[in-house]
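User: Can you predict the 3D structure for this chain?
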Amino acid sequence: MHTIPGELLIVGGEDVRRGLPMPECIEAVERAMRAVSSGAAVIPLRTIMAMPDGRNFFGVMPGYIEDPRGLGAKILTVYPDNPRRGLSSHIGVVVVFDPETGFPCAVMDAAQITAIRTAAASAVATRALARADAAHLAVLGTGEQAATHIESIAHVRDLRTIRIWGRSSGKAQALADRVRAAVSAPIEVSSSAERAVREADIVCTVTAAREPVLCGEWLKEGSHVNLVGASQISAREADDVLVARARFFVDSRVSARAEAGELHHALEAGLISADHVRGEIGEVLNGTVPGRRTEREVTVYKSLGIAAQDVAATQVILKRAAAGIGTRVPF
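Assistant: Here is the predicted structure, written as structure tokens:
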């Protein structure tokens, strides 16, 4: 921890990208998820405040983890229409405190931390749950999370094909053009979500959908799915067929009970029971819950995002503070 009393480290988006390489973030998030599932973390359920317009939100996510040791809170807004303004839909800051003294030591851009750590968490889950020979990736969605997920999944599996689908074919093509140089696998734009996922071994849904864009009947045996985009109990990216069919894992049981729309809808429909969640991804990593059991099983990781992931990411960035990452200001 690089705490200097009387100074505050400010880390903007560009410095976050420089200070949080995907491979290091993946390892830090894995340690954090292990800590969450072994009782070595404190992560209260996030507080979400709906704005009067009913479409935009303000949230606070505090957390503490022991490995890598860190304390902080993410404070952010979620404005789904922001991409039309050329802005991220998730904007805010992560405030970092010294766990020894409680002194505030850094303020970091939350949009870039969220984009990178969320993709890193999906990579951790993919490494734990996808078949070892999984080589065909489908990404549903065209935003910032789509780009970081392509990068992160390529770090944990040797991809041979990548297919992208979005409601706007132009945005899908623009994404393909933007990320093509960063990955070795050929990238294609699919005309439909079904075509994108039919032969996929790994599927990542990173959309703003309120209703399903992914149907369970489309998936081949042995595939793995990361459900990432929907983070409210009233929204879901996958249908009940997929939920009921899959061996289902989450980042946090508490968060899943309160916020996982796919689980809630399938439970209300009577297609699953309350114990349908097989475990947290940290439990799989710690060896206390079995992950994939057969090559034919379909596995799902429901990502809601928890503060432990943000705090873990800040610790990676803080290690680079002495190397010119960020700007120190009097405080």
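The longest strand covers residues 57-66. Residues 7-114+308-330 form a domain with the ornithine cyclodeaminase, domain 1 fold (CATH 3.30.1780.10).
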